[in-house]
Amino acid sequence: MNLNNTAFKLSAFSPGQFINDARPQVVFAGRSNVGKSSVINTLTGRKGLAKVGNSPGKTRSVNYFLADNAFYFVDLPGYGYAKVAHSTKEAWAGLIEEYFRDTGRISLGVMVIDARHKPTALDVGMASYFQQTCVPWLVLANKADKLKKGEREKNLEIARQTLVLDVTVPLIAFSGVSGLGKNQAVAEILRRVGEKA
Fold first, then answer.
1. CA distances for 4 relative to 25, 41, 74, 168, 179, angstroms
2. Band of pLDDT at residue 97, cut at 50, 70 and 90
3. Residue 187 has pLDDT above 80, yes or no
4. Which of 35, 60, 101, 148 is the most buried (most CB within 10 A)?
5. Each residue of 123-143: b (16+ CB within 10 Å) or e?
6. 185: phi then psi, degrees, rounded to nearest 5
């Protein structure tokens, strides 16, 4: 499968616009400033595919990217960004909840955290949400290139304990800058997509 052959398909601003065709969906969730768009761009090898803003909170819709006409990368609005109106945050949260209401559409969840910091309470909440939905999922600890190897390993262990990750949930040190962890992440994604295809 050629992930370079990935193109923007649709921005859904309401549940009625969600894509519900037969293709598998790989959904990305994470804080507004964690770099989800950069992660998607790195995985696909397409720098400008998912829009990366100078300020957090750029993603305000559920954005679909069709990969090699076979499955979707789905970028959810980021959570936890303070510099937007409360009503806007509530709308984003509602959109995310509606997306997860039909877990049958999700082949794999990808939670993106910041490798440099201990996961926040909101991260813990998102992890719990994935656990409750019972969909297969993995965690990418982004920005890991900014840490020395010893720090990286220590922080990954802290993240695994804080998020209460089962041993079956992969936790991958990742970098949208250096490409660290890309091959492992792609292999996990394609394995899950293949199971659902």
1. 17, 9, 16, 28, 15
2. confident
3. yes
4. 35
5. beebbebbeeeebbbbbbbbb
6. -65, -45
Strands laid side by side in the 71-75 sheet: 6-12, 62-67, 71-75, 25-30, 106-114, 137-142, 171-173
Give, in order, the Cα–Cα distances in Å from 144 to each of 46, 158, 179.
Answer: 20, 14, 10
d(CA 31, CA 59): 11
Place of tokens 């959810």: 76
Tokens 């559920």 -> residue: 62
Contact predicate 61/11, CB 8 Å: yes
In whole angstroms, what is the distance from residue 71 CA to residue 42 CA? 17
Helix 182-196 / helix 36-44 crossing angle, nearest 10 deg? 80
Cα separations in angstroms, 99 against 25, 39, 85, 105, 109? 11, 20, 22, 9, 12
Environment class of 176 (CB within 10 Å of its CB; exposed 0-12, middle 13-18, buried 19+): buried
Q: Of the candidates 83, 71, 77, which has an alpha carbon nearest to the alpha carbon of residue 97?
A: 77
* Torsion 129-120-76-176 (CA) sign: negative
- Please give the model's pTM, rounded to 2 decimal places: 0.90
Alpha-carbon radius of gyration of the chain: 15
Helix (H) or strand (E) holding 110: strand 106-114
Mean per-residue pLDDT, 155-163: 97
